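INFO batch 0412 | record 1 of 1 | parsing
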Amino acid sequence: MEIFFDIETVREKEFRDPDVIDIKYGEKANFMPEFNKIVTICVWRYDDQDIPQRIVKNLEWTEEEQLTRFAEIVKKNVLVWHNIIWFDIPFVAKRMLKYQIDIPDELNLANKKPWEIKHIDTFKVWQMGQFWAPWNMDLVTKYLNIPTPKDNIDGSKVQEYYDKWRLEEIIEYCLKDVHASMKIYSYFKEYKLL
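INFO prediction complete | emitting tokens
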């Protein structure tokens, strides 16, 4: 079964001082699990009748609880998302290591050959063999005339929303991202790219 997911991340408190981290790592620090934590993992899947089902974190769950539950959800499933191979899966796996959570085989990409990875990365499909292609999902949705999930908030504003404790809006944004990835996936399937 395909599981569609996305994560939203924010900087850990001890790494908020830009003089400490940003000087050495620059903008890359915003994407590194060593300095950031997951605030939400949003998951969608289709049921047996092809009806989307939403599985989303409870606002009371800690990052460790989310990761533990996610580890169970992903077992024996194919994951689908935009740029999951280079960002989301490694980020999630490294955060699991922090909490000593066993990394399910589906999330352990270390030492795997590309043909051993069964997940569907819509970014890799969008590359179509091109060495470089825009990785931005917003651009892909606009190009394919799919409604963009970036209407009120985008990834650059998640930290600001988190600092103001606007968690419901972060989750809603994350869910919109997942829904958009489902539409991209369906589009690619329709045109036999998957």
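INFO post-check: Helices lie at 18-25, 63-74, 84-98, 122-127, 137-143, 158-163, 167-190.
INFO record closed
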